[in-house]
Amino acid sequence: MQKLVTGIFIVLLSTMVISGSTASETVKPSLTKNSQESTSEDLDPIDKAERDCISKTGNTNEMNRCSQIAQRSWEKDIQNNLAELKKFLSSEDYKKLQLSQSSWENYKNKDYELINSVISYKQGTMYLNFREGWRTEIVKQRALILREYLNTLKEE
Fold first, then answer.
1. I need a labelling partner for 94 at 20 to 30 A (CA). Which of 53, 84, 118, 138 fits?
2. What is the C-alpha end-to-end distance of the chain, expressed in Å?
């Protein structure tokens, strides 16, 4: 049973990653292409750490903890990218970035509220895994787009 729960969660997490990548296609096609062509060796280190952590347990609370660790890692990535972007942007453009980040934080918080509401209709601890997976995906997508901005500015 423990392996079945782990397997289901990994499949759901993979589905969310692919779905999130498809949603980002309008933002940057390379994000979708890279995500779809990725093998386990090509996974972002944060994704790999989360997947490895989840694969070691069948306990849904532990799986949630793995996703929460990934969320914090993606949040840290966001903060690092914002700090790096500041080095490349004019003060006027950096203010735009700050405004964008503030708007995104508001979106994230409202989406988290919606996710909590959706999950409140369901019973079973596996839906808590859905919640954490969806939250992780929201933060991951922001981190990835900020990485793309930074990479674009670093290009010569």
1. 138
2. 53
